[in-house]
## 1
Amino acid sequence: MAWSFLEQSGELGPPDASANVLLDAIEAQLRTGERRPLMLANRAIDAYRKDAARSRVQAGPEVSLG
């Protein structure tokens, strides 16, 4: 669900990195006992968005030439 949502919204980045973030978030939740699919997906999306924002901050500001 998380992958499809991010793909349809245009937020999905490189497949390998995106899959790692989403799967890590879902795996962490499963270890704590969470099993509800919608909750797993929503929290994975939140984790993905936080990771993407963190990556943008580390990359620095974009420069517009024109």
## 2
Amino acid sequence: MKKIHRRRFLAITSLSSVVGGIIAPNLSLAETGSESINIEPTKAQEAWMKLKYGMFLHFGPNTINKVGWGDGKFPPEKFMFENLNTDQWAQTASDAGMKYAVLTTKHHDGFCLWPSRYTEYSVKNSKNKKDVVGAFVESFRKKGMKVGFYYSLWDMNFPDYEKDKLYAEYMRNQVAELLRNYGEITQIWFDGAWDKDFPTRQWQYDPEWEKNPGSGLKHGERWEWESLYNEIHRLQPSCIVQNNSSSDRLGQVRYFPVDARTAEHFDFIMNEKIIQPVIDPVFTTPKGEKVYLPLEYCTSLSPQWFWTGEQFLLHPSVETIAGWYNTARKHSANFLLNVGPNDKGVIPDYHVTYLIAAAKKLGI
């Protein structure tokens, strides 16, 4: 990648951050000054950045229950989609100009969409025992797209979840299972870290915790995060690892190591303030090393991440979808747009209509 002066980079992104008269400050954890940016993305990061536009797919027991979050008590035998059509998902993504897709392999409820050998709470105990992860991978690869996995660190079902060492081993085993059994995986999108990281066990972050050694704030120790990260790269060195920083810390790093950052939602308002994303991709690790961490925006076409069957829905317009895409591109960021399949196992027609119209408007 061509080197670019830091001030030039920040000037470009600052100009592109003007939306509705609001200028997003370009925050950074790296040093500022007149130095040139000589930190370049890795080959794996470059390949991932070239994908640009992807489909986020939240699908699972929550789809049947029509809820945003489950509780880990959904009976596996009730997980059944007679008309599940992952080919339709892939066709929709392809028609929308997308180049990759990320599926919720395990959400906070702990239910696994693949027949994991490490838990009974999975599709192997569903009515038809269909490997949804396998079907997803096959369908999207047939369309020439890359595939990635969402995996929740938080798990409401695992009986020994509070036994950190045991649960960390469980996670490593499951992630290894996913990486060994489904071919090349372009990224793993982790979520739910706040449950063991934050003293409140809620997703909202309080910077005051950092100032108080007794606050109970953790930085991935309970997840054995570094070991998990290293295991992923041992199995698939080019897999991009992310750890969602949540909607109140867009583009920030929850902790190191990671390979890319998340910005969950555009124009997010919290406590009467606009949450601005960190744009600058150069960060300094606790060891003093500078690293390049590309950004990925994500948001949803529906009010919840999962399809919840609302009777009334105010859908994002074609112009809004195109605007999200253009904002991401101006910030040299990827855009992962969530499209929750419905309880029939297909992406609703209304989503398809807007996605294809947005692709036409964008010329992609």
## 3
Amino acid sequence: MARLLYSDGVSVLKQLDISNQIDGNTNTFITTESIDQTSLRVYYNGLRQSPNDISFNSSTSFSLSFTPLVGDFLFIDYVVG
């Protein structure tokens, strides 16, 4: 479940732990909510990733330029789109 980080009454910023999707084979991840693509921030083992490492497949799916390993951590911050 996504954690609410901020809301100004118009935009809602949330954080979601998607580490459970890491299987060591895929670099594509899905979310339960539509994401405003300009807002997505990806944190891999606590380090924010460059926007150049992220590409969107749809409003609820994105891919990374690398494949996370099992046991790693992957969190995202995003505004609901």
